[in-house]
Design goal:
The chain is α+β, with helices and mostly antiparallel strands and 189 residues long. It has three helices and 13 strands, in the order αββαββββββαβββββ. It has one domain: Alpha-Beta Complex (tt1808, chain A). It is globular.
Amino acid sequence: MTESHVPERHARLLAYAQSLTPPAGWKIEVSGDEIIMMAGPSVTHQRNLLIVREQFDAHRPVDLMPSENTDLASPNVGKLRNPDLTYIPVSVVELGGNEVPAELAAIAVEIVSPSNPENDLVGKVRDYPLMHIPLYLVIDPRDGMLTLYSEPGNGGYHRQWSGRFGDRVPVPKPFAFELATTELIRYPA
């Protein structure tokens, strides 16, 4: 298949994935030529997400709104991703539909799944900069680690901050605050 047919193939795969009806509690993502189905999150996952969301909500610009499990689409690069938490412009409501152009997202936040960590730690680290998402925060309750990626360009993120639960994460603009992580908990052993 020639390079000119790649966006067309990605658009067809994306349309097919969007036509699927996943079982209750499951979600669908697309990365390149792959359709990924994932089960719903655990209560540990949800608690950690709440701790993070409350802090982001307190520092969000008024023109951004939080959204959990929103489809972020980049048809030209064959990506449909569904972060645990994102902040998107309030104005996207005018677009209607169930998905948002990925380049409008201010950040993607993921709590690593114990059943499929590679999706968050490899696949999304690869996909989010291609989708022009400026910040990617990965919280890994398996080992109590955090990573904040920033400055996407040329197929990757150019900056990376890493720390452990208990460290303060320096979140840049448009949020501009230090995320406290002392209340985050690890998955049960």
